[in-house]
Amino acid sequence: MDVRDVLHGDDDPHRLLSLCAGRSAGEVPGPLREAYRRAAGGVGDTRHNGRVHVPRPSAVPEPTPGTVPAALPLPTGPVDRHALVPPLGVRVAGDGVDVAVLASHATAVELCLVDVVDASLPAHDPARYRERRVPLAGPAYGVWHAHVPGVRPGQRYGFRAHGPWEPAAGLRHNPAKLLVDPYARGLVGELVDDPAVHGQVGSDPYGPADATDSLPFVPHAVVVAEPTGTLAPRPRVPWRDTVIYEAHVRGLTQRLEALPEHLRGTYAGVAHPVTIEHLRSLGVTTVELLPVHANVPEPHLLASGRTNYWGYSTLGFFAPHAAYATRAAREAGPGAVLDEVRGMVHLLHEAGIEVLLDVVHNHTCEGGADGYHLSWRGLDNAGYYLHDGGSPARLADVTGTGNSLDFRRPAVVRAALDSLRYWAEVVGVDGFRFDLAVTLGRGAAGFDPDHPFLVALQTDPVLCGLKLVAEPWDVGPGGWRTGQFPPPLAEWNDRFRDAARQFWLADAREASHGRPGHGVRDLATRLAGSADLFGHSDPPLLRGPVASVSYVTAHDGFTLADLVAYDHKHNFANGEDNRDGTDDNRSWNHGLEGPVAAPDARAGGGPGAGIDALGIGVEIAPLRRRSIRNLLATLVLAAGTPMLTAGDEMGRTQRGNNNAYVQDDETSWVSWDLSPWRKDLLATARYLLALRREHPALRPDTFYTGRPRPSDSSGGGAGARGPGSDVGVPDLVWFDADGELLDHSAWHDPAVRTLQMLRTAPEPGDADVLMVLAGGLDPVDVTLPGVRAASDADAERWDLAWDSDWEHPEDRDRANGDGTARAGDVVALEALSLRVYVSTPPR
């Protein structure tokens, strides 16, 4: 068979995509039990779109052995290749289940019902299981289907696909391999490091098919009934008020001793009142959870007994990762695991907190062509995966994982949309963050902002009203696309990350060696909402600064504390000889690599405590802490949607590891044992987020123009009373250290390290807010500016709201003076510091 007969018509062997290197029992416990006691009062509608669904019985009967014959004869009669088929997956329907699976190049597909007949045997012992096979009818538009009576929720199952084994043509059918249903709602069992989990013999991806049955070595899909109970309404937090908190389900609470031990590191733990209180007191409105789809470790990790802690290795796009559920839920089965996830969402919603899921629809866990043979590869390798168009067929890797899902294929687009709707409607989540989202928008000619998948996100009635966030890059050709996604998607703003780190850390490090930096222009652009990136739309400026999900750290990379303690990555614990992880950290250790080593009054740390002061280098610990506060304030007070990484508000360290994807231990888990300086930092984070909530000038939902607002004829703010207030004022003004307007030459001068950003009040009664940034290595005198006064006598009054030189917000009470000043007054700022002033009415 010619490869061109199989692969997509747009696969051009003369226009090959770049191949990229691999990158690295019982009821539900705790607070969820009460949530579901209340929620179960309503039956029927369990989704958010108003559809009514048949409720699940309160007691689910166990599967009845022998109801389905050990094997059924193949369907007879003509095949209707254009029949209407049920929705994909295995769904409870009447006296059994409706089954449908896409395998467009297969010659036959069997539903395999798996029963555990001797639970005393090891999980990978074939004698533990009995398998009953049911041939499916089809294909109808590539879908194999049947109604199978006698199958009940809790039944394990999989598929076996028959067809040609022609790897050079992209065809990898091997009926010896039990395949996971791509639409499975639950999974049980572990993946075992055994040759049987691969489709071919040995490591040659074009070698002969391996005949070993994989059933004992792979996870099994499980039939899950539709859940019941009404979920709490979505909080619907406006974008301008949104504060995102990126967290890992296990890592967030694994070390939280205030939680009962059996709830730590679980979905239930995320929704425990102690956790919720922390999030609410911090000012978080929206939790973004690292992947919770069922996942398995990559082959090299499985072989070494390690795991992908982050979870970016999906096996089931509809199934929750069972390892994050409580033991009781896991023992009760996938239905209980799903209930625990829904309970988590329900309780967070009751607390007013939204839930976003980080979803990985760009690739699967199966890896490269020599990788696993677990699901998609065995069902329809040529139909699901992106190929380079060559012969022999090769996977085109634009994700750095060995494979990429082919979003030119309607079936791939449909699967992603079906998964998103399921999590939105059944589980009730509030939105999604799309990992490597450029892959999801790749068409025949590369990335296309009008790609059908992206159009569907804008128009689908279930999805278009959710919070949707793109990670706007992948590793393929033309993969960096920040600012190029269509509304209503927001995007991670890597340019904000880089600019903030560059100004406060990398440039300061260079200056300490007598080398020039980059000035203030890029940082100012990011502080103002990155209109250069997100302002391009039809009509212009439609997306607003809220489209910029601004961040300084994320799950990958240094933590906030490590940014100020390490110049270089220390990733040897990952087992890759420190080759993994980026070298572009833009960090600064302030003169000493790693933790300092002598006690100081604020440190109270211990060995490996990141920036705690325990001996040598104690003199740099205060400056490190100030640098953390500078970065935190820059993030929280900039125009845009701030995203904090869990634990940064408490000085979490990974001991210099900037790629801790395999560290499912104290390296990655949030520490809740707070030394004095970490308590101070938490208080500071709470204070800054409260300041953001208090002042609308810090939460714009439209881009600044540098001109008076269209409705602003009186100046609008608290400082707009008195002489001169009948003149409109610009929404944003930039000043230099002398209180003068920043001119063109200063914008382009790398030596300029002081910047004043004045944002005027958007509504009458609100306050103007002035941020003063001093990025030099020496203290600096700054003349405070004004824009409202008609004369010196009416000069605006400024109240000092915060100074990054303060270890704790209450340090203001110990500061010199009362913190008030007038426009034109000269104030002294410490080196590498940031101040926030708020206007008060003139006396």
TrEMBL record:
Q: What residue spans carry the Basic and acidic residues bias annotation? A: 572-587
Q: Tell me the segments the record calls region Disordered.
A: 42-66, 572-599, 700-725
Family matches, as PANTHER family: GLYCOGEN DEBRANCHING ENZYME
Its ancestry begins with: Bacteria, Bacillati, Actinomycetota, Actinomycetes, Micrococcales
**UniProt entry tagged with the keyword Metal-binding:** no
Q: Name one GO molecular function term.
A: amylo-alpha-1,6-glucosidase activity
Q: What region holds the Glycosyl hydrolase family 13 catalytic domain?
A: 242-692
Alphabetical list of SMART domains matching this protein: Aamy (SM00642)
- Similarity section: Belongs to the glycosyl hydrolase 13 family.
Q: Which GO terms describe its biological process?
A: glycogen catabolic process
InterPro entries given in the database record = GH, GH13_cat_dom, GlgX_Isoamylase_N_E_set, Glyco_hydro_13_N, Glyco_hydro_b, Glycogen_debranch_GlgX, Ig-like_fold, Ig_E-set
Q: Which organism is it from?
A: Cellulosimicrobium protaetiae
What protein am I looking at? Glycogen debranching protein GlgX
Q: Please provide the record's keywords in A-Z order.
A: Glycosidase, Hydrolase
The answer to whether the entry has keyword Hydrolase is: yes
